[in-house]
Amino acid sequence: MIGAAGACGALGFVREDEIECEEAVAHLEHCCVEFPSAKVSCDFIAGCTEPDIHPDLSIEVAECVQAMDCDALRARDLCARIADDPRIARICE
Amino acid sequence: MRVAGAILVLGMSSICTRAQAQGEGPFPNIDRVPSSRVAREEESSGDVRYFTAKISAGGAVRHIYDNFIMGADFTVALGSNTNGHAGHYYALVNASAGRTLRGLFVWQIRLGHLHEWSIDRVRAGFAPEFGWFVIERATNGKDMIALVIGLAPHISVDIVQFCANASSPGALYAALRAGVDVPFFATPDTAMGNGTLALGVRF
């Protein structure tokens, strides 16, 4: 029973994709005026009977956001692009 | 802070000086009227055990995945000291709080058992621990929570000993600990490294 609860995320993990997503959002909050943080979901929800729900920002996108300084984020208009579409897939190519 | 530390050291030195002048240690009841357990230990090994406590505070760094967390660390430990070589035992409570480099607030509470040995002014040991590790989200303010178990070797050096006799453990010390925490039900790559450099007082 405990194993099943753990597998379904009920006991709470600290997942890499969630941390990287939250770190990226914190960086966007710092760089972007009134960035709508609540619009982004960084939760991983294990679907025991349904497909898993992953954070809006993948690890790759989140790390890319964190690697940019504020000027670079604004120059690429990423504050607005991510606010409009939190599940943006490609920003670093 | 420095003034408080100086007052504490001077106060302890004063207690030790008075006690030594009277031919007593800082724990006169144990010296003069040993409990049955202490007496048994004295008869069997020559070691004397007595209650001890220590408090320390310092800076801490943690590492999880590719993220560093910088913060403060506070530990209270209560236990049993000995004037022999059998080791010292403590139950400890450790609390730390800090931020990731991007600003997420992180805190942790750990409970554990510390076992250490001393050679002159140096003490070394290890502490198996368990606790809660919490990161506050930027998106919705909720927490990411993990139950963790860990092991933390540590070493400390007495900078000032309040009374360096067989029955006194009193000291102002510097301590370095480095350990690993692993969340329950998690994969090995979630292991969290941690290190703390602290200043403490042992009574």
Can you tell me about this structure?
The complex is a heterodimer of chains A (93) and B (203). Chain A has one domain (14-84). Helix content of chain A is 47%, strand content 0%. Chain A is built from five helices and no strands. In chain A, helix 2 packs parallel to helix 3 (59-67). Chain A starts with a helix and ends in a 9-residue tail after the last helix. By secondary structure, chain B is of the alpha+beta class. Chain B has one domain (50-202): Beta Barrel (Porin), CATH 2.40.160. Helix content of chain B is 17%, strand content 58%. Chain B contains three helices and eight strands. Chain B has helices at residues 2-21, 28-32, 36-45, and strands at residues 49-64, 67-82, 88-100, 105-119, 122-136, 143-161, 171-183, 192-202. In chain B, strands 1-2-3-4-5-6-7-8 form an eight-stranded antiparallel beta barrel. The longest helix of chain B has 20 residues, at 2-21. Chain B is elongated. The interface between A and B is medium-sized, with 29 and 24 residues.
